[in-house]
Amino acid sequence: MKPNFEKMTRKELREYAIAHRGYEDIDEVLNILYSRRSPDSESIWFHPPKTKEEEQEQFELFNRIIEEKTRKKEAES
To answer: Which InterPro entries match (predicted)?
Structure first.
């Protein structure tokens, strides 16, 4: 009996995909798994700066983001 991939969690889909490589339904599983991704929701877009001030602002923002991520990573360790 074929599992209901739509009702499976992301973790269950991933485990199924790993365990069933080469099976005929693997394309369906991977399509569902990939459709649930949302990397752009976590992305920060930097556009080319038009002035030196914009360049400096972006540089400072980038540094703050790196520092925050570093602190979070260290706190998790």
So the answer is: DUF6887 (IPR054053)
59 and 48 Cβ atoms separated by less than 8 Å: no
Is the pTM here over 0.70, yes or no? no
3-27, pLDDT tens digit by residue? 899 999 989 999 999 998 888 889 9
Of residues 24, 45, 43, 25, the one with CA closest to residue 33: 25
What per-residue string of b and e applies to 5-15 under the rule 16 or more CB within 10 Å gives b? beebeeeebee
